[in-house]
Amino acid sequence: MYLRVTVETYVLKKGRFQNGAAFFYGLAFSFKSASIKIRNMKVKNWNSLFFISCAILSFSLDNVYSQETIVEDPTGIEEWVLVWSDEFDGKEVDTTKWRIEDAALIKNNELQYYTPEDVYLENGNLVLRSRKKSMGGRDYTSGLVETKGLYTQTYGFFEIRAKLPKGKGIWPAHWMMNAVGTWPPEIDIMELIGHEPNKVHMTNHWGLHPDNRMEGSHFTGPDFSEDFHTFGLQWEKGLLRWFVDGEERYSTTENVHDVPFYLILNTAVGGNWPGKPNATTEFPQYHYIDYVRVFKKNIPEKPFIIASADNGKVYFDPDKERYDKGDDVTITAVPDIGYIFDSWAGNMEGFDNPLTIKMNKNLILKALFEKDPDGPVLISQGKKVVASSLESPELQASNVVDGNLGTRWSSKFSDPQWIYIDLEEEYTIEAVKLYWEAAHGRRYEIQVSNDAIDWTTVETFNDNVGQIKDIWLENAAGRYIRLMGSERATQWGYSLFEIEVFGK
Ligand SMILES: [Ca+2]
Ligand SMILES: [Ca+2]
């Protein structure tokens, strides 16, 4: 049952304003003040009932009606719908859109500690600052944000407007990684090596580590540290096209990925490619990002659904990148542990879950969840953890309960391996959430115990695919909870960013 209909689709069409929906816009506008839940019998504004009946009428005419605003066309040749963006106009980084790194990532021999201190908004820009400052065992600090776990997309147009830092050892990048967590694939929209501030690199990575491959090109232009420039990527089935300031600078039709990716914006310091900073490198350096805009191509006969969610996930049946006009699609919002579904927002607002709709237009939806006051609470963070082995001293067991998705525990490269958490007292354990790294366990058991000697298995996985896993448990109680791995899925050890245990 849909009682409200709104209003925010941006259609790009060759720079012209298209206003085909004024009537519906008026309706929807009148409607913005209404907030009614029929299902829960909560009616906040009876004056809106007239408009509700209008909306039901309009809904019966069509699923959705939208205010259509034309934005500049990023490619000049096609019609695009803005589906996700951040203009960075606020006071603080929007953490429903971005995860802010807080870790000494072990990668490419880079020298920075990524800290939230170096990620902030200023004058309508996201600022990633790089400093010569000791932190977390590193000699430099810098900033990294990503949409991992918050927003992913397959295909589209991705545009970032930025003014880049420069100098020997400075490595700004706008790039994308596979949402599933394996590497490659990776698409680098823009990379710049700071001692060549007029050269932009554009690269596609494919294959699977260690048999990975890459192909790319570079464009030599102005000094990209002196002013703002736009860096764009058009990604379609079998096509990748890179743009700098609206001009195509590289393209390929080979090895084009077809799985969802998330976005990453960062400035690395040092690393194998740029080398170390030297006496000529000036600190601090600033990487200014004016906006990030993500589009999907508007194909009227092939509408799409984009759904975002924090504290939950959205599933589609059938799950397709595009639908045929008239297809029925069932959309289900599944809350994270400890949350309950509240409502839908975006092009279509309502309270039914799951909901079935007829695909007549592009739909941009957001699932809203709220904290479940009766739900289980997180009981594992900061507790004592013991593991069977460590891959290396910095990949310590306590990293799975530090609340940081950038730090992880990893075991030695053999089977079996285990890790347990001491909850300090006996709990009824209702759920466990595992955040696997790419090196995950294929077969493992969840076990509980009151003495860390005799273990009872409460859940068994025989063909685990990794990623983020919500595990609901029945009749599980104990002071200790253990993940007992019997078969690794990769040649590497068992590797987990975080284990969250929920109970009462
Ligand atoms: Ca801005
Ligand atoms: Ca962690």
Helix content: under 10%
Strand-residue fraction? Answer: over 45%
Taking the sheet with the most strands, its summary is: 12 strands, mixed
Question: CA-to-CA gap between the ends?
Answer: 35 Å
The count of strands amounts to: 38
Q: Total number of helical segments?
A: 2
In terms of per-residue confidence, which ranges show pLDDT below 50 for 5 or more consecutive residues?
1-72
CATH architecture of the largest domain: Sandwich
Cα-atom Rg, whole angstroms? 24 Å
Give the C-level CATH assignment of the largest domain.
Mainly Beta
The overall average pLDDT, rounded, is 85
Given the C-alpha coordinates, what overall shape results? globular
Whole-number total of structural domains: 3
Bound ligands, named by name, code or SMILES: calcium ion
> Structural class from helices and strands?
mainly beta
- What kind of assembly state do the chains in view correspond to? single chain
CATH level-3 fold name of the largest domain: Jelly Rolls
Question: Which keywords apply here?
Answer:
Jelly Rolls; 3 domains; nine-stranded antiparallel sheet; mainly beta; binds calcium ion; 2 helices
Describe this structure in words.
The longest helix is centred in the first third of the chain and has 13 residues, at 49-61. The chain has 504 residues and is mainly beta. Helix content is 5%, strand content 47%. Mean pLDDT is 85; it is low at 1-72. Strand 34 (441-449) and strand 35 form a beta hairpin. It has 2 helices and 38 strands. The chain folds into 3 domains: 4-79 and 298-371, no CATH class; 84-297, Jelly Rolls, CATH 2.60.120.200; 377-503, Galactose-binding domain-like (Jelly Rolls, Sandwich), CATH 2.60.120.260. One calcium ion is lined by residues 87-89, 124-125, 290-291.
